[in-house]
Amino acid sequence: MTTEHPVYIRRFNRFQRVMHIIVMTSFLGLALTGIPLKYSDKTWAHYLVSFIGGFESAGYIHRVLALVTFGYFLAHLVYLFIFFRYKSQVSFLAFLTGPDSMVPRLQDLKDMYRNVKWFLGCGPKPEFDRWTYWEKFDYWAVFWGVAMIGISGLFLWFPTFFASFLPGWTLNIATIVHSDEAFLAIGFIFVFHYIHTHLRGEKFPFDEVIFTGRLSEEEFLKERPAEHARAIKGERIETLMTGPPKHWFRVISVIIGFIALATGITIISLMIGSLF
Amino acid sequence: MKKNSLLYYVVLFFAFHFSAIAWSASIPNDDCMACHGEKGLEGKRPDGKTISLFFDHDSFNKSIHANLQCVSCHDIKELPHEGPLKKASCSGCHVKSHKENQRSAHSAKAGANQICSGCHEYHTVQKASSLTDSVCGTCHKTPYSEYKAGVHAAKKGGQKDTATCFDCHGRGHGMLKNRDPRSPVHASNLPRTCSGCHENPEIVKKYNIPVGNAYSQYMDSIHGKTIVASGHPVAANCSNCHGAHGIKRASDKTSRVYPANIPATCGACHKDVAKAFETSIHGRELKRGNKKAPDCTGCHPAHHVQEVKTTSWKLEAIRECGNCHSKLLETYRHTYHGKITNLGFTRVAKCIDCHGSHDILPKSDPHSRISKGHLLETCRSCHPGANKNFSQFIVHADYKDRKSSPTLYYVWIFMTVLLIGVFGFFTVHTILWLPRSWIERIREWRRGKRS
Prior knowledge:
The structure holds two protein chains of two kinds. Chain A has helices at about 15-40, 45-50, 55-85, 90-95, 105-120, 135-155, 160-165, 170-200, 210, 215-225, 225-235, 235-240, 245-275; strands spanning about 10, 215, 240. Chain A is mainly alpha-helical. Chain A has a single domain, classed as Fumarate Reductase Cytochrome B subunit (Up-down Bundle), CATH 1.20.950.20. In chain A, helix 1 (about 15-40) crosses helix 2 (about 45-50), helix 6 packs antiparallel against helix 8 (about 170-200) and helix 10 crosses helix 11. Chain A starts with 7 loop residues before the first strand and ends with a helix. The relative contact order of chain A is 0.13. Chain B is mostly helical. Chain B has helices spanning about 1-25, 30-35, 55-60, 70-75, 95-100, 105-110, 115-120, 135, 140-150, 165-170, 190-200, 200-205, 215-220, 220-230, 240, 260-265, 270-280, 280-290, 295-300, 310-325, 325-330, 335-340, 350-355, 375-380, 405-450; strands at about 40-45, 50. Chain B has a two-stranded antiparallel ribbon. In chain B, helix 20 (about 310-325) packs across helix 21. The longest helix of chain B has about 45 residues, at about 405-450.
């Protein structure tokens, strides 16, 4: 009977899904308009910057997208506050340390140890909860990255303002930090985030859950058994259940997802090609 | 055309011989020698001067005209004749040369009748191909003495390729003034004339001429383009820099293109620039004999001088500075300024925007744009709101050097450790993960197939 109407589990709400689209597009835009500077001696960087319309246009787009970034960063903090204040029924400490939190726990280290053992064929696959340790790393990488790149970026955007109360060499530090943090973010997202969520065997070529917000119950049970057990135990599983995503919505998700994947992989290929 | 000219020569040939025979029949040379063979024979010119009328028949016999009769040139119908005679005319036979000569610079100066002998002598006339530079030197004394001191006159080991007067000015009777646009040494033609040898790969190789493609470079330079565009000698051509006759090697201390002399050579036109350069650190070092100091050509490639307003030159100028100041170029490329210019845009600060160009001075000089007193002013030319702190920005920061900027060094170390740490960890993690995840995927696929 479930074959006709497979049961799906809701994983991301609408706010989170929209947020990911904004983060994704602004990040790709920032990478495309910023990376030519890092590789200014390469021919492809010259083509890229001319395609964008010169360094002035690239700089303009980069700054607009920086504002978008500050916007979503702020929106996320507001969301966390509202979620805790009005939706969550647990204490602040439980909110931070519970299984639904992004804050790392001891369990994450255990999971990682077991996972590596599983990689090597020395044990069973660990039973993950709502967030795996690599997902938490992805989250905090963005959190850290936005803060570091954002602050250093503001220094470079308004050098005379910051120099009015800070020594001029802080601009040198901002240059190094902005450049290296951006390199780290681009390298991490376009290689490891892509592999973690889309390109590894179980997910290849593309995991649409962040766009549709839902995954099949079968996949839910396999990927996140601990969360599943918690839902059953707390008798919450009914509230998570939903129908399959609409066909047109999946098609759009796949198109957007593949464009993003292709863009990221192109950028990283150019960067790796520049090593030789 | 060819047929016509052939016919012309055939007719001329016969006309010449028949007329020679006709004259020879009238008065043989021996009749003339009966009087002019006497060594003591003298006569008076119209101006009253007494001259010898003796004719040296032996040297005449060695000349190219040995077969001609006296009366072939001298207008004498019967003997004895009255004196003084009309001037002998060459044009009776050398029609074409005469016509060419009439249009030449020589003709305008000397008058048609006297000029042949100026180069060819009178009775001892030799084959034209045997004429040498020294013939020109009889009148053009200064250019000739300059030429003799120059590189083209040095014919070591019997070199035959080095340029003679004729190679540049043209061989023949239609010699033109250098101001005449048709002259091979006119400003608009000179580069092509020089390139006849200097673009010839064989000659370039044989004599180890350092700049092999000077012509094409020059024609592409602001000097060459200006001359081509205007048709007037308003910009420097080969001779303005190298000299016309006294051309010397760049290694020769008296050469106009010897490094220490180049500012004066360029300064002949670019006066203000030369003046500013003289007091700059580059100019002072060059004068002191520092071999590493640049002359004008150190930044503006000698034959390929570009218009300074163009984007390509502005970007090229940065690399020119970097040719010597390589470390400074490297650190400049780490800054936003350096990266934007590297991408091909010129709106941001380039070397000259902070350091100046011809009047460049070291930081220690109080007049320098980057001296303590002037640095902020220099920053403000682009960043009007800048204050004293702003000018503390380390433009040429080498963050890999712990001693010069320890803070930057440790920030860089931190970032490097972070990068290596994150990428290193996840590379190992991924390498272990991927095979396992694909094994799982394939197993599942097989299971699905079986059921």
